[in-house]
Design brief:
Immunoglobulin-like; single chain; mainly beta; six-stranded antiparallel beta sheet; 16 strands; globular; 8% helix; 196 residues; six-stranded mixed beta sheet; 44% strand
Length: 196
């Protein structure tokens, strides 16, 4: 089975603003690869929900984990599946994944944000086992697909993302990749959860 991280390395196109000259990093190892190369004396540790794990440019967490990007923190606070979202009906064979997120600017000026900064993934061997949102709200306002919005200095904001996902899936992740003005990539972030 392809891992979400390997799949994301080939398909993630995010347009995050950045002002660092941080060099691009190689895609992170999969958990299976890390287990094979980790020293035997290092025990596996399951982090608390509020503390992400970090390994070689990869942050991983769960619902409620604060994920610290170069410009802002984001926290996936809730996720649910539905057949309809604000008048948009799921196509046959699909559900709508609705994800609530908290955002907090941790940078020294307003941070431009974009509609497709985050994407959803699910467990699947297909090359297209991911989706960008079809609907996005920031601070209660709907943002158009080509829209840009600003997260002000020290601002806390709520965001809601809606994705079309194949029906029958319950395990998902939300991901984000830092992308800098010099076209290099920074850290990669995954938040994993099961929708009941």
């Amino acid at each position: 089975m392809k891992t979400w991280k390997a799949l994301l390395a080939g398909i993630l196109t995010v347009t995050m603003f950045g002002c660092s000259s941080k060099p691009a990093e190689e895609p992170a190892e999969t958990p299976e690869e890390s287990a094979e190369t980790a020293p035997e004396e290092t025990p596996a540790v399951t982090p608390a929900a509020s503390e992400p794990t970090y390994t070689d440019g990869l942050y991983e967490g769960y619902l409620g984990t604060v994920m610290p990007t170069a410009w802002f923190d984001f926290t996936v606070t809730n996720a649910k599946l539905a057949k309809e979202y604000e008048g948009h009906e799921a196509p046959d064979g699909y559900d709508i994944l609705i994800v609530d997120m908290d955002l907090k600017n941790t940078f020294g000026h307003s941070v431009p944000m974009f509609y497709n900064d985050f994407q959803a993934q699910w467990f699947d061997d297909a090359d297209d086992a991911y989706a960008f949102p079809f609907s996005m709200k920031f601070g209660g306002e709907t943002i158009d697909e080509d829209g840009e919005y600003a997260l002000g200095i020290n601002e806390n904001a709520k965001a809601v993302y809606a994705f079309e996902v194949p029906a029958g899936n319950k395990d998902f992740s939300i991901s984000m990749q830092e992308y800098y003005e010099d076209e290099s990539y920074g850290d990669l972030f995954f938040v994993y959860f099961t929708v009941k």
